[in-house]
Amino acid sequence: MQKVSAVASLVTLALVPLFAVEASGQDPHRATKLGSFEFSEGSLVTLGREDLGEVGGVEVDVRQLSDSTSGTSVSGLLVIVTGGFEDDGVEGAFVDADELPELVAGLDALLAISANPTPFERFEVSYTTRGALELAVVNDRRDERRLRYAVRAGQITTAAAFLNAAEMGELRGMFVAAQQKLEQP
């Protein structure tokens, strides 16, 4: 029986844009359970999804995919980033459910940074998931004491949105809501 990639089915089932492929020829989303979920042709596949919101060009969608024939299922997030610059596109990143506690902790650690933690003029501290979602805090070029937050998705082609601390707090709320939703029976 032929296997069908979950990435292709997510594109078909949820009209999700196609994603970049690494230089090695590997799809970066195959590093996640959600992105590498496979089911047999002829299986009854269920996709449950819910939009949790959007802030500053970052959309969060919680989802669960299951194959009733094999009894397997995976769940997590699709985070879609619309770039903040004219030449930026739209990129997405999968985040598996088991990554959510660490993602929230990583975001909390970034939000706790209030000053440059290095002896250098410029800095960036980032947290990255298996599926190429990157959250970062950087100091502003024009005012080195001012902190900016970035959300990036993609590996070869990327999209980045820049948020303030309050917007990052909203994003954190969406991640926590997703975690709670996925913990429900």
Describe the structure.
This protein has 185 residues and is α+β, with helices and mostly antiparallel strands. It has one domain (3-183). The protein is 24% helix and 37% strand. The chain is built from four helices and ten strands; from the N terminus they run βααβββββαββββα. It has helices at residues 6-14, 33-36, 100-112, 165-183; strands spanning 3-5, 38-40, 45-55, 58-67, 72-82, 90-96, 124-128, 133-139, 147-153, 159-163. The strands form three sheets. A four-stranded antiparallel sheet has the order 3-4-5-6. It has a four-stranded antiparallel sheet with strand order 7-8-9-10. It has a two-stranded antiparallel ribbon with strand order 1-2. Helix 3 (100-112) runs antiparallel to helix 4. The radius of gyration is 17 Å and the shape is elongated. The model is unreliable at 1-25 (pLDDT under 50).
What is the percent of helical residues? 10-25%
Number of strands: 10
Structural class: alpha+beta
Treating each run of at least 4 consecutive H or I residues as one helix, how many helices?
4
Q: What ranges have pLDDT less than 50 throughout 5 or more consecutive residues?
A: 1-25
Mean pLDDT: 83
The global form is: elongated
Largest sheet: 4 strands, antiparallel
**First CA to last CA: what distance?**
31 Å
Radius of gyration, CA atoms, in whole angstroms: 17 Å
Task: Name the strands of the widest sheet in spatial order.
Answer: 3-4-5-6
Secondary-structure element order, N to C: EHHEEEEEHEEEEH
What is the count of distinct domains?
A: 1
Please indicate the percent range of residues in DSSP E strands (runs of 2 or more).
Answer: 35-45%
